[in-house]
């Protein structure tokens, strides 16, 4: 699919009519005076960067636990890569770059320690109390759990940023009120009672580019980290025609390239091709939908920023390879089991004796609560932990802590 380069928004500062407009935002739950120097979406992005949750991403991992080495991605480095790609897509499509970047920066706030392993373990122990969902947890963090401002809990983001956080992967409700991907997490429904995020519509195009940027970033960096770790080889990449083609390009142009540079040349091409694919698809769909406003984007009935059919197939092939070669590798599965035990043990210990959480705020707020609200508070505390803090907390409470190496 070809890109219309004349329609790209590079360097002209122009915002399309279908872009979200920070000057006509739907506002914040708690009314605040405007800034004379920053747009409302700039303020959102800045607030996100200054949160405790953002700093904690530095010590939260996804696949490879931090003890494995300093060069593997963490949630923070992944988030920065997603934000860079989202901003590039937003600029090309003449969107509000600050909103796209803000949604990208906040999208992983709700993740637990130890990546998806920690999330699965926390969901399992919280099932009797409504379960755990990282997207809903992100919403709880920015609307309730961050305690920085004198006049409200959370960081009081604009409606558009919250909408993007919750709906960046598409609507959560069908028109009949049923969940599009199963029941909508209760924290999201509870928040919408006081600040309706319109769960049955698509999100802004800014949120959509943040979502697809996430796919692009983690596909690429999990391959990079997989090659670094030795769980992936170049021969394995050859099984995917798209990646084999990229390697042929690099070999033809640089026949004697060392492994690290060869890897980087593949990765940069992969990102570029995927970004260009999304731009071309978005341009085509914009020409079909012809949205005149961000409202038209929300009511388009389909995603606008997404992969082409061919790139979607490549995306699926890459995910299948990563799942088989890395995520289900015996070494990773052993580490996952140990990480899950740490989360499960800590949950049981804190439910039995909340004072073990060693935080006046958490202990004071949990004392005397029934099991369901107490479990939710314990879940909040655990979800906020970094990998290193969770390991340290487990060592303090238990005689033997799993070796995550």
From TrEMBL:
UniProt key word Hydrolase: yes
A GO molecular-function annotation: triphosphoric monoester hydrolase activity
Domain spans labelled HD: 75-219
PROSITE patterns reported in the protein's UniProt record: HD (PS51831)
UniProt key word Hydrolase: yes
Signal peptide: none
Keywords: Hydrolase
Family: Belongs to the dGTPase family. Type 2 subfamily.
HAMAP family: dGTPase_type2
Protein name: Deoxyguanosinetriphosphate triphosphohydrolase-like protein
Organism: Rhizobium azibense
């Amino acid at each position: 699919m070809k890109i219309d380069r004349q329609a790209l928004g590079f360097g002209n500062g122009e915002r399309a009519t279908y872009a979200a407009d920070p000057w006509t935002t739907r506002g914040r739950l708690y009314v605040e005076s405007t800034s004379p120097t920053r747009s409302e979406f700039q303020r959102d992005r800045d607030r996100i960067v200054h949160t405790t949750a953002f700093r904690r991403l530095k010590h939260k991992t996804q696949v490879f636990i931090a003890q494995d080495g300093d060069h593997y991605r963490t949630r923070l480095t992944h988030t920065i890569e997603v934000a860079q790609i989202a901003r590039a897509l937003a600029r090309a499509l003449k969107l509000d770059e600050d909103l796209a970047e803000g949604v990208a920066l906040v999208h992983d706030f709700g993740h637990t320690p130890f990546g998806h392993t920690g999330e699965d373990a926390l969901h399992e122990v919280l099932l009797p109390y409504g379960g755990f969902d990282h997207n809903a947890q992100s919403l709880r963090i920015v609307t309730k759990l961050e305690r920085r401002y004198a006049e409200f809990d959370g960081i009081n983001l604009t409606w558009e940023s919250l909408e993007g956080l919750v709906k960046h992967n598409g609507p959560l409700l069908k028109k009949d009120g049923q969940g599009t991907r199963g029941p909508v997490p209760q924290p999201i429904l509870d928040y919408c009672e006081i600040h309706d995020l319109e769960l049955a519509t698509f999100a802004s195009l800014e949120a959509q580019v943040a979502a697809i940027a996430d796919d692009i970033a983690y596909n690429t960096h999990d391959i990079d980290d997989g090659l670094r770790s030795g769980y992936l080889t170049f021969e394995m990449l050859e099984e995917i025609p798209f990646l084999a083609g990229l390697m042929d390009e690099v070999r033809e142009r640089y026949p004697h390239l060392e492994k690290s540079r060869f890897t980087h040349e593949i990765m940069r091409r992969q990102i570029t091709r995927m970004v260009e694919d999304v731009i071309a698809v978005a341009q085509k769909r914009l020409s079909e939908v012809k949205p005149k406003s961000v409202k038209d984007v929300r009511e388009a009935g389909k995603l606008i920023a997404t992969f082409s059919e061919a790139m979607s197939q490549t995306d699926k092939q890459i995910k299948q390879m990563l799942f088989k070669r890395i995520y289900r590798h015996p070494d990773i599965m052993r580490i996952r089991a140990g990480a899950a035990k740490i989360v499960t043990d800590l949950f049981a210990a804190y439910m039995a004796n909340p004072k073990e959480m060693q935080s006046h705020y958490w202990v004071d707020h949990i004392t005397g609560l029934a099991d369901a609200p107490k479990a939710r508070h314990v879940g909040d505390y655990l979800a906020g932990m970094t990998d290193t803090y969770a390991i340290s907390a487990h060592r303090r409470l238990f005689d033997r802590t799993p070796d995550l190496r």
